[in-house]
Design brief:
It is built from 16 helices and 23 strands. The chain has helices at 49-66, 109-119, 125-128, 137-147, 149-157, 165-173, 186-189, 204-210, 250-257, 316-326, 334-339, 379-405, 422-432, 444-457, 463-469, 482-497, and strands at 5-11, 15-21, 27-34, 46-47, 74-81, 87-90, 100-101, 160-163, 183-185, 195-196, 201-202, 219-221, 230-231, 243-249, 266-270, 274-281, 292-297, 305-312, 349-351, 369-371, 412-415, 436-439, 472-476. The strands form seven sheets. A seven-stranded mixed β-sheet has the order 17-18-16-15-21-22-23. The termini are far apart.
């Protein structure tokens, strides 16, 4: 078809990137820029949507320049994004009514408490696969409409639009106020707490319960769609028209990028948070052990594929906190060298419940804690406890997922920024007692979005072709005694319980 590459926008929690991939799934060029993390008060996290859109345009131009490419070299554009983060804007001007409420933000705790009192925490789970929690977009939409009068007035008049960040980026890429496409793919829609997993449509009863007008919501579309949602604006960063036809929430994109297309295949992504997804095939498996059911992907008009997911709020963000708030390191990669100055954690455990605890606990009342401190402990032990927290949280999820699925994990594919940390990867294999496998291409989130777009336009012929691109870079095999593993897990679970009930209802 004459086109050489596929482009992917990766709009993440801390930065935005644009990556250009060739037919072998290899990176041709990449550009990245961080955006501000805004903390107005404890538990609140917001982003400036306009800053993000400006950054997206900048990194697109940057990656094209680095790759000595132009928009005419690209066959299609895919988008992946931080999920659940919520923005509402004016359809006529593109101006947001408020900053975007980030998935980590806990400001909707009272809304969730009221919904839980009325419906029970699992009151919407049968339809949505999700518990009622601050994590998801629906309560965030309600918070904005309830607290920003202009947003409510515009929503009632049909002049306000809601979107998670892929919707926001797609709308602007395809023209914005000049007729931009207002769509969300099924994976992102499944994270709003508003979509019925069985019908893949917005649920009117839940919309009524949250007092959200249906007219603000985007059209739900497949993750990979040959009927492109729109073309890039010639006046935008690509300077030409390119079909925009692939979108996946970041964790589902990583599942696709890791080519976990078979039922029972799993991957874990170590990013700002930590997210383990298990492909459950065409069945939306309901969890009874704290996991959530979600859409994994949908290719064109085919049946949707579902997944069980375990979500950890704070993973790489804990390393950032040690860097930015404590100043123990100047760069994130230094955490491994600091941790290697000691042979173990010195008896301390760090439970990073900064935003409460997500799966499998779902405790909004929890807050972070370091337990087991003695005068023996030094900054090396703290660094090691930071890394180990990611592995222990992952084990919690794996154990719960095995109870739901009845299938023991035989190996774990990993990706995300933290998989370069070999100390963490070895400890993860040790604490799971199974091999941990890192692929040669670790940018699997952006790659998944590129695959979705490329499949839609025939750049790749099918899933088997994508599987051929996946190659092993390194495998870590477990090397820990059963006694050491069980002792560590027992003490970790004890540490987790110390974080419960810290925030009482009247303080939230």
């Amino acid at each position: 078809m004459g086109k050489k590459y596929i482009g992917a926008v990766d709009q993440g929690t801390t930065s935005s990137r644009f990556i250009i991939f060739d037919h072998d799934g290899q990176i041709v060029s990449v550009d990245q820029k961080e955006h501000a993390q805004i903390f107005a008060q404890p538990g609140w996290v917001v982003h400036d949507p306009m800053e993000i859109w400006e950054n997206v345009q900048e990194v697109i131009r940057g990656a094209l320049a680095k790759g000595e490419s132009s928009g005419t070299d690209l066959a299609a554009i895919g988008i992946t994004n931080q999920r659940e983060t919520t923005v509402i804007w004016d359809r006529n001007t593109g101006k947001p009514f408020a900053n975007a409420i980030v998935w980590q933000c806990t400001r909707t705790d009272r809304i969730c408490e009221e919904l839980t009192r009325k419906y029970g925490q699992d009151g919407f789970r049968e339809k949505t696969g999700l518990p009622i929690a601050t994590y998801f977009s629906g309560p965030k939409i309600k918070w904005i409409l309830d607290h920003v009068p202009e947003a409510r007035r515009s929503a009632d008049k049909g002049e306000a639009l809601f979107g998670t960040m892929e919707t926001w980026v797609i709308w602007w890429l395809t023209g914005g106020p000049r007729g931009g496409a207002h769509v969300t793919d099924v994976t992102n829609a499944s994270r709003t707490m508003l979509m019925n997993l069985n019908t893949l449509q917005w649920d009117d009863e839940i919309l009524e319960a949250l007092d959200i007008p249906r007219r603000v919501l985007p059209r739900i579309v497949p993750s990979s769609d040959s009927a492109a949602w729109g073309m890039t604006d010639e006046n935008g960063p690509f300077d030409t028209e390119i079909p925009v036809c692939g979108a996946l929430g970041d964790q589902q994109a990583a599942l696709v990028g890791q080519t976990c297309f078979e039922k029972g295949e799993a991957k874990n992504t170590y990013g700002t948070g930590c997210f383990l997804l298990l492909n459950t095939g065409h069945e939306a498996m309901r969890s009874t052990h704290g996991m959530i059911s979600t859409v994994a992907y949908q290719i064109g008009g085919q049946k949707a594929v579902y997944a069980l997911e375990g979500s950890v709020a704070i993973a790489g963000a804990l390393v950032q906190w040690v860097r930015d708030n404590l100043g123990l390191i100047s760069e994130a990669r230094e955490i491994e060298d600091l941790a290697r100055t000691v042979e173990n954690n010195g008896g301390i455990y760090f439970v990073p419940a900064f935003s409460g605890l997500f799966a499998p606990y779902w405790r909004v009342d929890a807050r972070g804690a370091i337990v087991g401190l003695t005068r023996y402990v030094n900054k090396g032990h703290l660094a090691r406890a930071v890394l180990e927290a990611n592995a222990y949280q992952t084990r919690d999820i794996v154990e719960a997922m095995e109870k739901d699925s009845g299938v023991a994990l035989s190996r774990l594919k990993v990706d995300g920024g933290m998989v370069v940390n070999e100390l963490l990867m070895q400890f993860q294999a040790d604490i799971l007692d199974c091999p941990v496998i890192r692929p040669k291409i670790t940018e699997t989130t952006a790659l998944g979005a590129a695959y979705a777009a490329g499949l839609a336009v025939g750049f790749w012929g099918g899933l088997d072709e994508l599987r051929q691109n996946w190659k092993v870079d390194r495998t870590w095999d477990p090397n820990m005694s059963k006694e050491t593993r069980e002792k560590g897990c027992k003490e970790w679970r004890k540490a987790v319980t110390k974080t419960f009930d810290w925030v009482e209802a009247e303080d939230r």
